[in-house]
């Protein structure tokens, strides 16, 4: 009778161990599955962040090139405007010089006409 009770006890213990082992394996499988799902979810976010970062890097490079080109073009425009302003100043100087020459020529012409006509005779009335 004791041996039967011992065998029953050992059988129940073995069943419990097997049941515990089965539950432990199921728990490990569930934890592994959860961990994989979480890692996959995080990897999707990380992958998207990496793709976005690469796009941003490419956009930054493009923007730097365009900004450099714009700066060069702006410098050329500034140079052209400065040259244009200088040309306008020179035209203004030439215009003033031409007016001065014209006034001098009128003075000379008037003097020559005066000399050519001779002194003006007073008219008797």
UniProtKB/TrEMBL annotation:
InterPro entries membership: BLOC1S1 (IPR009395)
Coiled coil segments of this chain: none
Domain of life: Eukaryota
Region: Disordered, residue numbers: 1-26
Catalytic activity: L-lysyl-[protein] + acetyl-CoA = N(6)-acetyl-L-lysyl-[protein] + CoA + H(+)
GO biological process, one term: endosomal transport
GO cellular component, one term: BLOC-1 complex
Gene from which the chain derives: LOC113064699
Membership in a protein family: Belongs to the BLOC1S1 family.
Designated name of the protein: Biogenesis of lysosome-related organelles complex 1 subunit 1
């Amino acid at each position: 009778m004791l041996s039967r009770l011992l065998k029953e006890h050992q059988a129940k213990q073995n069943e419990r161990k097997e049941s515990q082992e089965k539950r432990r394996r199921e728990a490990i499988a569930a934890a592994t599955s959860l961990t994989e799902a979480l890692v996959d979810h995080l990897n999707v976010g990380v992958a998207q962040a990496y793709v976005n970062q690469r796009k941003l890097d490419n956009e930054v490079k493009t923007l730097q090139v365009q900004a450099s080109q714009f700066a060069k073009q702006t410098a050329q425009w500034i140079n052209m405007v400065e040259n244009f302003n200088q040309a306008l100043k020179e035209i203004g100087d030439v215009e003033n010089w031409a007016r001065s020459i014209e006034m001098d020529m009128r003075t000379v012409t008037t003097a020559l006409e005066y000399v050519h006509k001779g002194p003006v005779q007073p008219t008797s009335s």
